[in-house]
Amino acid sequence: MSPARYGIDAPPALFGLISGAVLLIPGTIFTAVFAGWWALWPGLLFVYFTVSAALYLHTTTRGKFAVWAEILDGLALRGDEQVLDLGCGRGAVLIAVAKRLPDGHVTGADRWRSVDQSGNAPEVTAANAAAEGVADRVSLDTADMTALPYPDESFDLVVASMAIHNIHPARGRFIALDEALRVLRTGGRLVIADITAARSYHSFLERRGLQPVTRPLGWRMWWGGPWLPTLLVTAVRSR
């Protein structure tokens, strides 16, 4: 069986960083040769785009896996939970959760857009789950996060990784959060990793009467640099 393949998050963003670095190579050489080394700006921009692309590539292929493993281990799951992964993509978090649920089940919901993740398709995610030996604990649905097709209080845990910020306009993100709370059981946990919009999730959950905790996830989940970090927002549905 082929190994699991998880693709690249937001491939246009990575392509833009790599393209910027490549396009700056001629300018860097020209200024170094004809304008003197004092003309540093093309070289500095080249370094910026190159380092940003390297950090982005590390985050999407290695960093997020290590960070999510730590997040999930910290949840101390019993192993029999019913879990929902919003915007599951090719299954990086979905499968990591399933490996920790010998007697539980994980449902992945996604709209399967390749602009959000390269090669994003349910058959790819299903193949990844089979390759990782958790196909029997995983199911996949085509679903909109703002109108989830699940009954109230269906899940013990709802997770989302780099997904909710893709909803536009911004008010749709709050609808998605309300939907996540609706399908979450009383006492269930909400765990969201996302970029700049995450601070608005914190405020929204507070307005809903929860006590969210938000913290940065560090350099392993920098999307190009410290100016675009990933934040983790967690909350427990108390009622």
TrEMBL record:
Record keywords, A-Z: Membrane, Methyltransferase, Transferase, Transmembrane, Transmembrane helix
Record has Lipid metabolism as a keyword: no
GO molecular function, one term: methyltransferase activity
Every Methyltransferase domain range: 83-188
Top-level taxon of the source organism: Bacteria
CDD domains: AdoMet_MTases (cd02440)
Gene Ontology biological-process annotations: methylation
Coiled coil: none
Transmembrane domains' residue ranges: 12-33, 39-57
Protein name: Type 11 methyltransferase
Organism, scientific name: Paractinoplanes toevensis
